[in-house]
Amino acid sequence: MTKFTSGPKINRRTLLKGSLAAGSALAMPAIISKAALASSGEINILMWSDYLPETFLKSFTDATGIKVNYTGIGSNEELINKLKASKGRGFDIVSPTNNRALQWKALELLQPFDMTKVAIDAVNPAMGKIGSTDWGFTTDETYWLPHIWGTEGLAWRTDLFKPDGTFPSYGDVWADANAGKTMGRAHSMMLGAGLYMETIGELEPGAMWAAYGSEEAMRPIWDKVTAWCTARKGNIKLLWNDADTQKNGLLNEGVIVGQTWDGPPLALKSAGDPVMYRAPKEGAMAWVDGMALPSGAANIEQVYEFIKYAFMPDLAGEAIDHHGYNSPVLGADKYAGEAYAKNFADAYPEDALAKLNPWPSEPQWYADIRTEYANRFESASS
After folding, report:
1. For the segment 116-155, what is each residue's pLDDT rounded down to a tens digit?
2. Is 90 in contact with 84 (CB distance < 8 Å)?
């Protein structure tokens, strides 16, 4: 039987390289361009629903006079569909995830940034480089800037569930012992199930990452995963597709353990609720959400004022302290407070950062087939 190699790994050194050295020296004053103040005075942002706290928006508007019209989204598919429907018009900033570059390149709904107006040295070099490599659709141009990074792992109610050891497992979401008290997002919890299946000998090690190679490689692997998940679908209490549903599941819907993003449960934890988030033993799935410029953006100067503001360490730190995710802005963690530092340490103890699984670049054929399998799972009887 063919042996697969595991997916690419990142550790804290590659993910956060340079942040300690740069410190907070890159904080910059809010110097507002005359062009921005002289134009429409507003900006239309299509971004993940919990990324822009009210405190950040108020601070930006108070300093610049620019009104923010903020439309929240819950998935990359929602973001893509809205831009396709509007033919790239109606929004000035959108927030695609780093691994969706191949899909966006084919759509031709974005325009490159003027990098002379972007302080790219203000962000983690490894993450900043993504915009000129994976998202460098044309020579020497950048179509994406890093904004928020985080992971998908396991969240649980500390008063109702205890993992077996330091780390939980993706398998906990599917376990009979937790039947009717778990949650996840269909397509990613199926990926998590596959990673768990690798550890118990039901799939070859590295199979889930090898599935990104071709349709021929993907289908037999996802056939097995879908059959395994469908047989255990009755154990799942809730399927989520946004941050609020994750929070509500843990607080009000009887969920004791679930596969979630890091931000929502950590926000609950910071608020004093009995909730914990941690990378599972199989490795959390890591992602970076960015900022991109739609082809029909109408308020270009306001976009660069917003980026300037988003890349200020003090404001980025205040934002991550609120929503629970992480910032690529160098020195932002120093402004995030003690709760953020403790949450980060709790989420990634021991070798958890070295075991992160960066989500591979996702071509459209993979996304389409994955949706096919996720729909098959969702429509199956429990």
Report:
1. 999 999 999 999 999 999 999 988 899 999 999 999 999 9
2. no
Structural domain range at position 329: 12-149+288-346
Residue 4 within a domain: no
Residues 187-200 have a mean pLDDT of: 98
Question: Hey, what are 9's tokens?
Answer: 């790994």
Distance CA 369, CA 217 (A): 12
DSSP per residue over 25-58, as a string? TT-------HHHHHTTSEEEEEEETTSS-HHHHH
The reported pLDDT for the residue numbered 25 is: 34
CA angle 339, 13, 11 (to 5 degrees): 85
Q: How far is CA 121 from CA 21, 246, 293, 317, 360, in A?
A: 12, 34, 19, 17, 25
Proportion of the chain above pLDDT 90, given as a percent: 87
Residues 358 and 224 in one domain: yes
Q: Answer yes or no: do 212 and 308 share one domain.
A: no
Question: Among 107, 375, 39, which residue's Cα sits nearest to residue 226?
Answer: 375
> How many domains is the chain partitioned into structurally?
2
